[in-house]
Amino acid sequence: MIRYLIFLIAVLLPFEVFAISAEDVMKKSQAAFLYQGKDFKSRVMMKLISKGGQERIRELSMLRKNFGEAGGDQKFFMYFFQPADVKDMTFMVYKYPAKDDDRWLFVPAINMVRRIAAQDKTSSFVGSDFTYEDVSGRDIQDDTHAMLKEEKLGARDCYVVKSAPKARDVDYSYKLSWVDKGNFLPLKEEYYDKKGELSRVFTADEIKDVKGFPTTTKRTMKNLHSGHRTEVTYTKTDYNSGIEDSLFSERYLKQPPKKWIE
Amino acid sequence: MKIQRIGHRGQKTVSIGDLPRREVRLFVVFCLLSALCVLLSSDAIASDVSLHGFVQGNYSFSSRASNPDGGDFKWAEERVQLKLDASKEPLRLFIKTDAFYDHIDEKAQIELREGYIDYIEKKWDLRAGRQIITWGLGDLIFINDVFPKDYEAFFSGRPMEYMKKGIGGAKIGLYPAFASFEFIAIPIFEPNNYTNARRFYMFDPMPNVTNREEKNPPSNLENTEFALRAYRDIAGFDAAVYLYRGFYRKPYMMPDDINSTTKITYHYPKLSVYGASLQGRALDGVLSFEAGYYDSRQDRAGTDYTAPNSQTKFLVGYQRQLWEDFTIGLQYYNEYMHDYSEYVKNQPSGLPKDRKLYQLATVRLTQLLMHQTLKLSFFSFYSTSDGDYMLNPEIKYNFSDHIWAAIGANVFGGGEKWSQFGQLDRNDNIYLQLRYEF
User: Fold this and answer.
1) What's the pTM value of the predicted model, to 2 decimals?
2) What is the average per-residue pLDDT within B24-50?
3) Is A83 on the interface with B (CB under 8 A)?
4) What is the CATH number of the domain that holds A227?
């Protein structure tokens, strides 16, 4: 009888330990990482660093506004300061959870706004080690999520979730995420390629409290195959600053308002 | 408007409109500089000033044959551009000025590319001065972009931004909730710039007539050009309608006597354009439609051979990313001539005849490599009705965040000796663009 009970407890144990499902962890993580506040703005400095140490700079203002709940529609507005050949360019994305994004680019030299056809799943964001999906998020239901374990990463207690894409639409076979149990921010992500080898690693290097929202203000994505990495710093970060719906329009792509791009 | 047929035109003479235009431009520069002084002096703390620009070398070598005048370069220049941007809400001043040295004509010059003042309110804005305006959806095919182009820049391997010329005028933007509007008034006519007869071989139906003159529409209220664009989102598609009342920017030939011509006058016939466009996500890419009716107001019956017949123009375009950082763009364009039988009846026997239906296809391939610092691109025009083509392969590399270089080629051929690209057959060139940007 006792042996039977022990066996029963042993069988049930894994289910009892994980009081929250892997999918719920990823949903909460998405909400904490990409959907906090009604709106968000930041000055983003990206350093693209080659294996040999050569640096290139991409500096932009990023504004984001939510339309609906976490996981719902969002609009992004970006203005580029650097490098010089893309200065004054603006870029706008309407992001929808279940279908492809709409994207527009403004080219100041010829005063032209045009739609661009890039796919966000595999495209690098401005040549960095981040893809568009890394910047603006990936739909939760595009992956199958499994809870692997709980462990400490540094001083933080984390869930470790394995996410495998349902379709073959990305260039990795699965991803491991270390999600902070306290604030649900991803502290580390490992991307494994089709051969099962570790190919890219994301780390959250600095987390600050901004208006009560824990915010990843420094992050790195490293490509282990090429040795190339991208370090990103967010400054002048703010939430709920009242970004108007009208900002996300052709008018303001052509004439970005000074108050939002400082 | 497609890349226009350059033919029927020889040496360019001094334009009658040049003198007053130059004075007007100087006046505009004076006004802009005065405005800058006011902006800067009034309250320097609140105003926001930036200065950027580039230093550039641009050379294009004639690879197929020496130029008509014996030279070997289509283009050879060094250029400095300064962009001054000063703003203090609700005003903004922008000046983009180039200074360059042209090695072919051995002259230095200053060119005001753009210079305008913005006044910005919540529901409307105004931009006054010299400005570049780009309308429509075509990739190097222009239907509702009725604003001036520089085809010489395009065929000589200059950076793409030099294909667009500014207009001197005012633009009012209105932004009520239901749609957005751009209304443009252009008091001073600006023609397209075509290839220089000393540098480019072009078809000329009357090479022996040397007495030639160009006549711009005089600047007055009646000749002021007006353009309107209204646009909004319709079910996720970007929809726009366009209206234009003004002139063709391509010169048309008017011989003094068609049977024994001693003098050719180039003029710019009256034109109105009514158009629409639609663009959105479809078929895993971006799909575009654009159409326009060209109402040739001086030749509605189609009987005057010195002015074009009315036309209907239609474009369908599709672009899609096929794999990481590789994009393909396809376009198909039709130009249908109205009253074709009248055109055939009235076209003088010595002049080539256009087709009733002109058709053009384009392909653009773009591959970015090395963290998007290396760009390989290929663009081609091929006319399925005329059989002529233009090919433009290019490699561009950003050596650093400040320095880039591009090497490319323009190759022309096929068709007839008067067709759009066929006439440029002997003008193949290889070009280099080198720029330090700051």
Assistant:
1) 0.91
2) 65
3) yes
4) 2.50.20.10
